[in-house]
Amino acid sequence: MNVHSGFMRPRLAGVHYSLIQALHWALLAAYFSFGGTYLYNLGFHSNQVGLVFAVIGLVSAVIQPLIAVHADRSMKSAMVLRWSCALVAMAFGLLVTLWILPLSLWLHTGLYSLVWVLIMALIFLLNSLAMEYPNAGVPLNFGISRAVGSLAFAVSSYLYGICVAHYSMVVLLQISSFLALALLVALLLWRTPPRQGADAVLKTRKTGFVRRYPRFMGLVIGTTLSLTPYSMVCNFLVRIIEFTGGGSIELGTAVMITALCEIPVMLMSWWLNRKFGTYVLMLVAAIMLSAKMLMFSLARTVIAVYLAETFQLLSYPLLLCISVYYVNALMAPQERVRGQALMALVQAVSSATGALLGGFLLDDFGVNGLLWISLIISVIGSATMLSFTQKVHQTVPAGGQLDL
């Protein structure tokens, strides 16, 4: 696979990376916003949908550290990019297969699940890809690019809602196929700078990753607990919308509101980090994740759901951006890909756990019971995050980009 190595001009690199994020999150919108609807349309029940989501999350969680360890050990500047291209190429092939070929229900479900395993595994690779430029001394504002991704997610979710309301579910496969192809082209045209820290590999690997970062592992556990109920809401938002009297258009609108609320904090993430520091912002995100779950637990109308989604502003997107900076500041250069993979693994594990647990809770206790149990788990997770988050050193150069 031919990938480029070398520097792009900072402005061009920022625009190009924003395009990559936009395509990636527009693609993920088809899964996070309408994956449940797609599986319900195939004839699955809530616990079966939860099981499928759980398998997707768990398999993604297994392969992410394996990819990260390989990328860290190689220390080749283009390794992260090569893995990214490979995952997207495989996902594109599977999407076209699902679109064109008539398959049995279980084979179709299996290939559909594999597509999202690959696309979810791409999250930490793209985060690592962004950090390679500032680590090499070239400004690249991750927050702005990630905000573009959220905008693409919001617009795509709304459009998916309209398409699903007027056409068959096949349209999701068709759009996803074109997005995957465009993402692959964008990645193949990306240039990545040389990675740093290759000479430190042998010295740091002798003591063990977990021993070197014990509090980080506690943070991983706490974040997993906090994001598990968040994943329950995301995976079964269609049922929550139905519970409050809405349909597919209201579902698309709710997801669009969520994504739009992410954009301001992502655009301002470097400024917020400079003003308040990574430590404080990690604590704010932990608290706001539970606040959002409280609002969902109290929601009884579609408008109340929309209001609950506005709490997205200082919860998940803040954690998403700041955790990337946090890991990059905390980890040694040759371990940053693994650190980013662990934070992405948190998302995969919480997605799997939330999907599996959420499906059974939904069948046994209904939407109301699901939300209140989710709130309890979220509060425990937030408390754990508050206990294990540690201060990290950071400086902010004149150009405004964090030098971590």
SSE layout and pairings?
Blueprint: E1 4-5, H1 10-32, H2 35-42, H3 46-74, H4 79-100, H5 105-135, H6 142-166, H7 170-188, E2 191-192, H8 201-204, H9 209-212, H10 214-235, H11 237-243, H12 248-267, H13 269-276, H14 278-298, H15 302-309, H16 316-330, H17 336-388
Parallel strand pairs: 1-2
Helix pairs in contact: 1-5, 1-6, 1-7, 3-5, 3-17, 4-5, 4-7, 5-17, 6-12, 10-14, 10-17, 12-15, 12-16, 13-14, 14-15, 14-16, 14-17, 16-17
Walk me through what this model shows.
The chain has 404 residues and is mainly alpha-helical. The protein has a single domain (13-195, 213-388), classed as MFS general substrate transporter like domains (Growth Hormone, Chain: A, Up-down Bundle), CATH 1.20.1250. The chain is built from 17 helices and two strands. The chain has a two-stranded parallel ribbon. The longest helix is centred in the C-terminal third of the chain and has 53 residues, at 336-388.
Number of domains: 1
Main sheet strand line-up? 1-2
SS-derived structural category: mainly alpha
- Helix percent band: over 70%
Within CATH, the superfamily carries the name MFS general substrate transporter like domains
Q: Which CATH architecture? A: Up-down Bundle
Mass-distribution shape: globular
The fraction of residues assigned to DSSP E strands is under 5%
**Record field, number of beta strands:** 2
> Count of helices?
17
H and E order: EHHHHHHHEHHHHHHHHHH
Structural Rg: 20 Å
CATH fold annotation: Growth Hormone, Chain: A
Q: For the residues shown, what is the average pLDDT?
A: 82
Give the biggest sheet: 2 strands, parallel
Level-1 CATH class name:
Mainly Alpha
Low-pLDDT parts are 197-206, 395-404
Q: For the terminal residues, how far apart are their CA atoms? A: 31 Å
